[in-house]
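Input chain follows. Return structure tokens only.
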Amino acid sequence: MQRLGYQRWVAQGGDWGAGTTTALAQIMPPGLVGVHLSWQFVFPEQIPEQLSFEEKRAVEGAKFFLGEGNGYFRQQSTRPQTVGYSLADSPAGQALWIYEKLQAWTDNKGLPEDALSMEQMLDNISIYWFTNSAASSARIYWENRGASFSGGKVTIPVAASVFPREIFRAPKSWAEQTYSNLIHWNELDRGGHFAAFEEPDLFVQELRTAFTSLR
């Protein structure tokens, strides 16, 4: 970032990007003044016996994902080349592999077309197909198969936006235990796991609001 001329900068991430952004926050490279996370990897070491509504929501969401919701994850984290070759050989297979996740994780009423246009989805799917990256994109799961939902402590300023159709939504109380300098926390009324893709204007507004105090 310094070579690009930025002496002060921020980082943002969701999904695997949230893991990368959290790692950046822990490394604290020169110039990084804060991070924004649209998926918060915060889980206490010990789950409380008595759960608040928000804690129960988080636990149930994580249980669903680790059970019925993560078949793709287990496949890619154990046999990435097998699924990779299959997807690289079939445009229909590649399309449906991604389309199913767009259906499961966007803020929709049953169909991903409720959240994204067909052209947007085809553009996204085409990136995998034209670059022949089904296998390489699956291998990150194999390479990080020991990872957990707990991202570790962060002391630099952290901003968080919680979208209603995220895979699981962490409660603010858990975030405060993990992020000692939580400068922004907002639970929104629309948007899903692909928030920047689904709601770009809302997403940009969240970033602007989140980082106002760091300008």
